[in-house]
Amino acid sequence: MPCCGSRTAPRSSSARRWEGLVVAALGSGWAIAFDSLTFLGSAAFLAVLHIPQGERAPATSFVHELRVGWAEFSSRTWLWAIVVEFSFVNAFASGAWQVLGPVVSKTSLGGASSWGLILTGQAVGLILGGLVALRYKPERPLLVASLAIPLSVPAYLLLAAEAPLLLVALAAALIGVSVEIFTVLWDTALQQHVPGQALSRVSAYDWLGSLVLLPVGFVIVGPIAERIGVSETLVAAGGVVVAGTLAVLCVGDVRRLRRTDTEPKGAAMPAA
């Protein structure tokens, strides 16, 4: 969620943004070394993580689990509607940001260091958005989450206008804020409204649907930009974000879904 960076790769998107600054400041070799250290750090934390042994569910076939997961996924309009939205937002908006952002930075904003600063602004926004989400617990989480996504649009417009670097970096911070607020509220909705025994399978369909068109976006953004222009493509990407938000807000289940302090019957919060 890019507009929805945290939903476009399992790996931490904020780590990649810090790496952009490392590349600009120290070079690609040091960035790779820094990347390796982050994996070593993750391994160290996992090594000391102790998870209590839970009850094992009866073994079932892979196809059966797919059917059960699909039944849970497809029966919730709010769930599949937002996944369809992000299929297109990730394909075009995220594709445009990740493909054309470095191009504009190189040609108009000063090069790799400028893109590193923009991505750093986005990472700072992710942190700020997380802090907001820790305190703010709206009654209608998906309504607020969806309304947060258009906060990313100014970054597309300012990048398209080749605005001063500082303004683009500040707008990129709004992308981070919007993505993190959405992600926290979305995950909360999943955990409160999807039975615990089906949560992993529903999440798998969520990720599949959200990412399925992303490679297509990476492929078509370049040719589109060559045909209509880089700035025009970035403006259109912002328009896709707005259109996707308006479309999903027309779904009553998205607007009406309420936060609950109790999990649905049979639900169990997944281990952190």
Note down, in words, how this protein is organized.
- There is one protein chain.
- The chain is an all-alpha fold and 272 residues long.
- It has a single domain, classed as Growth Hormone, Chain: A (Up-down Bundle).
- It is 74% helix and 0% strand.
- The protein is built from twelve helices and no strands.
- It has helices at residues 13-26, 28-47, 62-74, 77-109, 112-135, 141-148, 153-160, 165-193, 199-211, 214-228, 230-249, 252-256.
- Helix 1 runs antiparallel to helix 5, helix 4 packs across helix 9 and helix 5 (112-135) packs parallel to helix 8.
- Residues 1-6, 8-14 and 262-272 have low confidence and may be disordered.
Throw out a few tags for this protein.
disordered C terminus; mainly alpha; Growth Hormone, Chain: A; 12 helices; 272 residues
Going by helix content, strand content and strand pairing, the class is mainly alpha
CATH architecture classification name: Up-down Bundle
- In one word, what is the shape? globular
What is the oligomer described by this structure?
single chain
Would you report the number of β strands?
0
Largest sheet data:
none
Query: What is the mean predicted local confidence, pLDDT?
Result: 85
* Count of the separate structural domains: 1
What is the CATH superfamily classification? MFS general substrate transporter like domains
- Straight-line distance between termini: 22 Å
Give the count of helical stretches: 12
